[in-house]
Amino acid sequence: MPASSWTLRILTGMESLANIVEPLQVIGKDVLFISSLREVRNLPSLRADYNTIVVCRNGRIIVEIGGNSQIRVLPGQMLLIPAGKLIQPMMISTDIEATALLISDRMLKQLLGSQINIWNKALYMKEIFVIEDTDWMRDIQHISMPILNHYGEMHLSKDILESYLRMMLLLICEDLLHHENMSIKDEKVSTGHDKELFNRFLMFLGKQQQKKQKVAFYADLLNITPKHLSTICKRVSDKSPSRWITESVMQDCYMLLKDSDLSVKEISNRLGFPNSSFFGQYFREEAGITPLAYRNKNKKAVSIGFPGL
């Protein structure tokens, strides 16, 4: 099916991803492939319903993730961004050579199965966004381009693609497991059922337009009590559900203040705050700055080819 047949939702607006990012190859609605970031135009900050894997072969990239963490990606490194995270490109060098693979949450869960816990733990809890250059990363690139560029021309396209993606994702998870930040002293305390419920909580949280809800709201979606949800979150992530909710709400705040022309009052209404005064107080307590001051400080265009990159 041609790329134009798919309408893809970006949480920053109603435009389709295919209209915003070119060149884009749509490999079914669950997998998207950008063959060259050098040729991408009009790349705004966005928060897609896709998990993003960027392989940088040459040049350098600086992105801001989640509204407050700047990440530098160098040649040979792989950038991982989980679905729902605000992505703000800050600097892209003119000699950039990089590809990007976007995989839906549905496909990611299907391919990883129970190993999705590793992905979620690393990217949501530990915020490990960059993998260093490895032999497997270089080797897998040799087989990736023929598969991704010629998808649809092969009789076994679907099976080949899924096998390739599963292999790559498992290698990524294996690499993440060896990261120093992935060691948890009480890992055995949380059960597989706990992790499954926690993953579903993250999914429901990410899909809500107005995330600022009581813990009981999300507990009801999971058919458990608020106390049970709190216990699970503390066991699995050492963080309360209310803290997860606040951090997710703040990502929406950062996104709308940076990348929309909505007034503070309009943003307050969109995010479900009772009034703009409450919103201003909430934001200042978390960010240490007023919403308007944050907007004035951070609303800027992407810079291409900064000196010194």
Describe this structure in words.
This protein has 309 residues and is of the alpha+beta class. The chain has helices spanning 17-20, 105-112, 116-125, 135-149, 157-177, 192-207, 215-221, 226-237, 241-259, 264-270, 276-287, 291-298; strands spanning 25-27, 31-34, 50-58, 61-65, 69-73, 78-81, 87-92, 97-104, 130-131, 303-304. Strands 1-2-8-3-6-9 form a six-stranded antiparallel beta sheet. A hairpin with a 3-residue loop joins strand 4 (61-65) and strand 5 (69-73). The longest helix has 21 residues, at 157-177. It is globular. Mean pLDDT is 79; it is low at 1-18 and 301-309.
Largest sheet: 6 strands, antiparallel
Beta fraction: 15-25%
Query: Class by helix and strand content?
Result: alpha+beta
Q: What is the number of helices?
A: 12
Strand order of the largest sheet: 1-2-8-3-6-9
Gross morphology: globular
Pick out the low-confidence regions: 1-18, 301-309
Separation, N- and C-terminal Cα atoms: 39 Å
Summarize the helix and strand pattern as letters. HEEEEEEEEHHEHHHHHHHHHE
**How many beta-strand elements?**
10
Summarize model confidence as the mean pLDDT: 79
Radius of gyration using CA atoms only: 20 Å
User: Into which percent range does the helicity of residues fall?
Assistant: 40-55%
